[in-house]
Design brief:
By secondary structure, this protein is mainly alpha-helical. It contains nine helices and no strands.
Amino acid sequence: MFILPYQTGVIVIGTDPNREYYGWWTEKQNDMVLVQNFQKVIPLFWSSWVFWHYVYSMIFSLVALALERFCATYFIEDYENVRRRYIPYLLIVFTNLITIPYSYLIVNNMIPFWIAFAQCVVNGSFVFFGYLAFWRINVHLKNRIVKRRMNKKQEYSLTRKFQIEENIRSFKLAIKMVFAAVIYLSISLIILLCLIFELFQGYEHIFVHIFDNIVLAAALILSLTLLSCSPSWSESFIRGLPIIGRYRSPRVGHFNFPPETSISESDVYFKQLKHAWL
C-alpha cells in the first residue's frame, strides 16, 4: 500500500515527475531513483525495509523449521516430554537477527544482487536436502529398533521409538510444504531473473505486479499447503468455512491395529514402567 503510490507515480520521486519505477534491482544509474530530499521518501524507505524483512523472514523461516526438526532428532530421547521453550525462542531470535540487518542492507543496496540471489538458492537447497537427510536418519534409527525387536535379548527405549515415529510422521506431513516452498521459491527467482535481464520488455510493469503478488501471497499459499498436508487439518479447515462447511459431512476413519504389535509394545511399556518405579 505504501510502495504502490511511489511505483505508479501518484507520489512523485526523483527528477522526472512523469516516470514510473517498477524495477526490483538495477546497476544502471539511469534506472535508479535520484532522491534529493530523503525526508520525502521516509515512508517508502520504512515500507521497503518491512517488505524485505517479510521476504527474508519467509525464506529463513523455512531454515528455522529444518533446524527445529534437527533439534527433534538430536533430543530424540525426550523431545516430546521435556519442555524446551528456549528452542522456538532462539529460532525466532536467530531468524530476526539475520533478516532485520539483511533487509536493511538490501534496501540500501549494500549487498550485491547475486549474493542475495545465491542466499535464496542456498536456503532452499538447505531446507530440501536437510529434510531428506533428517528423514533418512530417523528411518535408519527406526530400522535399528526393528532389528532389536527381532532379537529379544536386546532392549530399546519406548520413548525413543515413539519420538522416532513422531519425527517420521512430521517429515511426511511437511514434505508437501517443503516441495511447495522450494517450487514457489524457484518460480519467484526465475521471474526475478527475467525481470533483471529485461526479458519482458514492454510488459515489465505487468510482471512486476505479478511478482509482487507472488511474493506477498507466499504466507497464504504455504499456510494452505501446510493445512493440506494432514487430512484432519484440511477437513477441520473446510468444515470451518462459513458456507462450504455446512454441507461438509464429517469423515470417520477405520483402523485395524495388528494384535501382535499392540501386545509387544504393551509388554515393553509395562516392563519399563516397572523398572522406573523401582
